[in-house]
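I am still learning, so would you mind making up any protein sequence you like and the tokens describing how it folds?
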Amino acid sequence: MAIVLKNKLYYSVGRMLPFLKIRPPQLDRASALTLRPARNSLLTWEATETGETVLTVPQGERKGKVMRLMAKWLSVPNERRIELDEVGGFVWGLCDGSHTVEAIVQRTSKEYKLNRREAEVSVTMFLQMLHGRNFIGFYKKAGKKS
């Protein structure tokens, strides 16, 4: 417990003082491919007839009277719509928490007749972009300890 707390404190200080260049440990390739991406439950999505997937992202509640007034005056929408192409929609459909990144890469490679390396690079970059926008999260499957 004390080691975990020490590591969290160490990395949080590194975030506040970037000149110290303290970074959290990076995942190696093998362990990154075993992660399972899961969609954010706040998002809704639908597939269109043209093969595209449309994500609907709700905007947060605007705080403060001035912000609400400006949003109403400028007619700011309450949600954003993001269109994914056919490949993006295919990968998005597999981000259900039951498929690993490795399985998504293999299925994308087989479905779109891509080289395995090409599929791995494009899928991992796409998943990183989705994770950066908080559309998906990654978790490890809890297994038996040996």
Summary: Strands lie at 36-39, 44-47, 53-58, 79-84, 136-139. The longest helix spans residues 116-132.
